[in-house]
Design a protein that fits this description.
The structure is a single chain. The chain has 4 helices and 12 strands. The chain has a single domain, classed as Nucleoside Triphosphate Pyrophosphohydrolase. Strands 4, 5, 6, 7, 9, 10 and 12 form a 7-stranded mixed beta sheet that branches. The chain has 164 residues and is an alpha+beta fold.
């Protein structure tokens, strides 16, 4: 197996298998997502995503840094991106591998309904309080289009009774 570091936390892996075949994939950090709710509205961020040159809607989330836990990262990303602090232990919704044929990372998804506004959102991020139907409309319009965030939302909806 060969590894070529491309950037901090991102490594291209070249792995031999079946005698004379080679497979390439990226080793990347795991990600935490936080679905936060205030009453019957969800806290959603929007920001421009450079690779697709579009403004997208998604839940707060980010890389799980070395030395951090998935739950700690989810709480930290919620605060950094939105200025809201999580006031309880978030409930784990589930986890997903975004592209197991090309990436080795997974997204770990959490839910909280106990948040408090402490600070302003991160520069370049807009906050939205959206209903379930508004998020579904954004998904349909391909504006809430990050597949892992869509997965997290529908997984949450399938387990909603456990969280209320």
């Amino acid at each position: 197996m060969k590894a070529k570091k491309l950037y901090t936390g991102i490594t291209l892996i070249e792995k031999k298998f079946n005698k004379n075949q080679t497979y390439f994939y990226l080793k990347t950090p795991n990600i935490s997502i936080m679905i936060a709710a205030i009453k019957k509205k969800f806290l959603v961020v929007s920001q421009k995503r450079i690779p697709i040159n579009k403004i997208t809607y998604e839940f707060p989330g980010g890389i799980i840094d070395k030395g951090s836990t998935p739950i700690g990262s989810a709480k930290a990303e919620l605060f950094e991106e939105t200025g809201y602090e999580c006031k309880n232990i978030p409930k784990k919704i589930g986890a997903i591998y975004p592209d197991p044929g090309r990436l080795d990372c997974k997204y770990i998804c959490y839910f909280t309904n106990k948040i408090k506004k402490i600070n302003l959102p991160e520069k370049g991020i807009r906050l939205h309080l959206l209903s379930k139907s508004q998020i579904i409309k954004l998904i349909d319009k391909k504006k809430f289009s990050h597949a892992c965030h869509v997965y997290a939302f529908f997984l949450y909806l399938s387990k909603i009774d456990k969280f209320n």
